[in-house]
Specification:
Layout (H helix, E strand, L loop, with lengths): L2 H12 L3 E5 L2 E5 L7 E2 L4 E4 L2 E4 L10 E3 L31 E3 L2 E3 L2 H12 L2 H5 L2 E5 L7 H18 L5 E7 L5 E7 L5 H17 L16 E5 L4 H13 L4 E2 L4 E3 L1 H4 L4 E4 L2 H10 L7 E5 L3 E6 L9 H13 L3
Antiparallel strand pairs: 1-2, 1-15, 2-17, 3-15, 4-5, 5-6, 7-8, 8-13, 9-11, 9-12, 10-11, 10-14, 16-17
Length: 325
């Protein structure tokens, strides 16, 4: 190590450190964080109080809720490995990456939201994965417009409340969408919504629809996600990880109740560090590691003990049921 490197490392070690534990990684940063939890678009937990904060478009006076979050029981539990390895998350805490007017999917962020969403008690009872495809040759712009109409109709008339969707380009270059929800929707009903939307666009003269009968087009398919949570996460990550597309529109989105879920817990005192040391392995080959002068990301190649996330899961249940549930 060079002298400058030694000094930088010494300074790094003397700064106050915080560990950010998410469902797929542990990030160490050289700063303290006010909120005990992170990743929510709407809430912070400060000194045991769940605070609802305004968004960027409209700043509102914070709302405080009396919330009791139990101290986790960190007794060791044996857990199995996830299928495959969670990919390295160098951009763990960044928003969507944009280049000019193009959007690129932030895989680490959507994975964290998938983890949080899938761990809800309602999601454990039922979780469905919809694939929404369109006739070959339909433009990106029209795909997004039809999808938005379909999504609006599902929310209004199909029972859809909580969801997360991701856009993907098929081999035939036409966009399709994947949607995750813990709400029951009848497949015939939602296919009917899509048929009506496509029929409307055909009447508007959209060329790609002129040689088909939209009212007979079954472009919506559904699979219920079954089995263990390990299999569930592997099922989701399979679709997200292969997604390298760039779009002029957002490549993913979620309902407000999913957006509000926390995706990480912040540990910044010696007692917290001792707990993490006790329940996470020290061997470097157990992680995908990315190091920066200001932070270090350790992506898990294993499934951490479930008990580590009991606080995070508990507060997410509070948030989820506070919002129209």
């Amino acid at each position: 190590m060079t002298f400058n490197g030694f000094i930088k490392n010494l300074i790094f070690q003397t700064l106050i450190m915080s560990n950010i534990l998410s469902y797929s990684s542990l990030t160490t940063i050289t700063m303290t964080l006010k909120s005990r939890f992170g990743g929510s678009s709407k809430f912070k937990l400060v000194d045991g109080e769940l605070i609802e904060v305004g968004n960027n478009r409209k700043q509102t006076k914070p709302k405080y809720y009396s919330t009791v979050v139990p101290k986790p029981n960190f007794e060791f539990e044996t857990s199995t490995l996830l299928e495959g390895q969670i990919e390295q998350t160098a951009n763990e805490n960044k928003e969507e990456i944009t280049t000019g007017t193009l959007y690129k999917l932030n895989k680490s962020k959507i994975k964290r939201k998938c983890f949080a969403f899938s761990r809800l008690e309602k999601s454990k009872k039922f979780l469905a994965f919809y694939s929404i495809s369109f006739p070959i040759g339909l433009s990106d712009d029209n795909c997004y417009k039809v999808f938005n109409i379909w999504l609006t109709r599902c929310r209004r008339d199909g029972g859809l409340i909580s969801y997360l969707w991701v856009a993907e380009r098929q081999k035939n270059e036409t966009i399709h969408f994947h949607l995750l929800t813990n709400d029951h929707m009848q497949i015939r009903t939602v296919n009917g919504f899509m048929a009506i939307a496509l029929h409307t666009f055909k009447k508007k003269g959209v060329e790609a629809l002129q040689n088909i009968d939209p009212l007979k087009y079954n472009g919506v398919d559904v699979k219920r996600v079954k089995g263990s949570r390990k299999a569930l996460i592997g099922y989701l990550v399979k679709y997200i990880s292969k997604n390298e597309i760039k779009f002029f529109r957002l490549p993913w989105h979620c309902s407000r109740d999913v957006s509000r879920l926390f995706t990480s817990e912040n540990f910044d005192d010696p007692e917290d560090q001792a707990l993490l040391d006790k329940h996470l392995p020290n061997e470097s080959d157990k992680y995908n590691i990315y190091e920066d002068p200001h932070y270090t990301v350790k992506g898990f190649k294993f499934s951490p003990p479930e008990i580590l996330f009991s606080n995070l899961d508990s507060v997410n249940e509070i948030i989820y049921h506070r919002n129209n549930h």
